[in-house]
Specification:
39% of the residues are buried. The radius of gyration is 17 Å and the shape is globular. Helix 2 packs across helix 9, helix 3 packs antiparallel against helix 9 and helix 7 packs parallel to helix 9. It contains 9 helices and no strands. It has 214 residues and is an all-alpha fold.
Amino acid sequence: MSQQDVERVVRYNEQRQQEYESSELVRLLTDGNTAAETKKAVLTYLQPWSHAFQRMISARVTFETDPQLRALALEHQQEEIGHDAILARSRADDHRVVWDPVIEAGSSWFVDQFAVLPGVQRAVLAHLALEAGSLVFSRAGTQAFPDDPYFELHDEADAEHLEMGYRVLRERTDWAADEVIAVLDRAWQVITMVSDRIAECARRDTGAAITAAP
């Protein structure tokens, strides 16, 4: 692939990251008027997504057969193992276990895609969608929860994981820009759907009003 193709993907993905910065969930966390109780409720509904993320990265490893991409998938998995437990410790005083059909459906879509997509597109899904979304979310989380180990860890690690994905595109030729952008479009839609649902559930459980977009 040409450098122009890589730059096209970079531009597209950065645009989707910027759009995600205006999502309901990110705005909830960064709004100084959001009640602390509502922000804490976000963590309650983030937990099943965090558990599901472990399934996602495991599925990527399980179904990847390309040696180079499998090595990258294993490296990513090793760096992410146990992060759901760190989140659980961050909310140690909250013992609620929640299940939500929208969060579960979005999680299952990602697990399924890691099973069926070609290798480079798996890497794109992991690093340019999930990690890019996590980077935006974690930066908002560090504002809402200063010094929280879960968000501090992801704020540092996600930028590196995002770059892993762009490196794959620069080094490989077995991908097409249109196909990669199509995968990213679907992934960002699912990430936004799940995020909006987490925000909705947090507000519903704490009786918080929705803040209108500026």
